[in-house]
């Protein structure tokens, strides 16, 4: 014998799918522009001795090992999906060498994410 | 011999002739105007130094005042940088450099009074820093002349043609050529 299916007394609310995640970035100043690196990829940061100074950021926890020289370590910031934009195609075609995967909008301005 | 109303048959004939002449002049004027107009184009005219340039309004997305432009390491010399335009990241290009007119990089320091003309074509978009926006003009498509022979061939590919504006010939830019390296 079949039972009648009753509707639940309280409406079940299904939340809208939203991106709540964020990515923690190490923001550095390379002397020309701001660059952002995924904090999870950073192995360590070394200070360069001597007159020129600066820092070497060693990366490679998530990807292949590499190092980046920079003038200053600025901050570690958490960027949400709202603050990350694709690289404008007009720029992507005009960059030689390592290309950024996105552009981040931070308080200090615009930083390229590598 | 005069008619009862005081108008002679000769005057009537003359008036009739004048009416016909006037109607025929109107008709030929309309025909000429129709031939001359054809499809129309709207152009945005701007200047870089003393030189004038134009771009079809169909490709102009907006005109902005420049704000802080972030430089990009490793980008070509024609890239001035990136600008945050109401949450949208805009690539700003150096038009004189693209046109091969300037060897020195345009400074982004003294941008007061300048404008950024945002051009879109073929899914690409970029802003071009210009000194002044002069006018929006409407002209017949037939008024666009070929690029002048005196223009260097490598530079000529950046133009669709030449138009006369305010007693000066201005180059009509080809948006797709300017946006693609």
Description of the molecule:
The complex is a heterodimer of chains A (114) and B (181). Chain A is mostly beta strands and 114 residues long. Helices cover 4% and strands 44% of the residues of chain A. Chain A has a six-stranded mixed sheet, with no helix packed on it. A three-stranded antiparallel sheet of chain A has the order 3-4-5, with no helix packed on it. The N and C termini of chain A lie far apart (64 Å). Chain B is α+β, with helices and mostly antiparallel strands. Chain B has two domains: 1-37; 40-179, CheA-289, Domain 4 (OB fold (Dihydrolipoamide Acetyltransferase, E2P)). Chain B has helices at residues 9-37, 95-98, 153-156, 175-179, and strands at residues 40-48, 51-56, 60-64, 69-70, 79-85, 88-93, 115-121, 124-130, 132-140, 159-165, 168-173. A six-stranded mixed sheet of chain B has the order 3-7-8-6-5-4. The radius of gyration of chain B is 26 Å and the shape is elongated. The model of chain B has no long low-confidence stretch (mean pLDDT 84). The A-B interface holds A 30, 32-35, 85, 87-91, 93-98, 103, 105, 109-112 and B 68, 70-76, 78-79, 81-84, 87-91, 93, 123-126, 179-181.
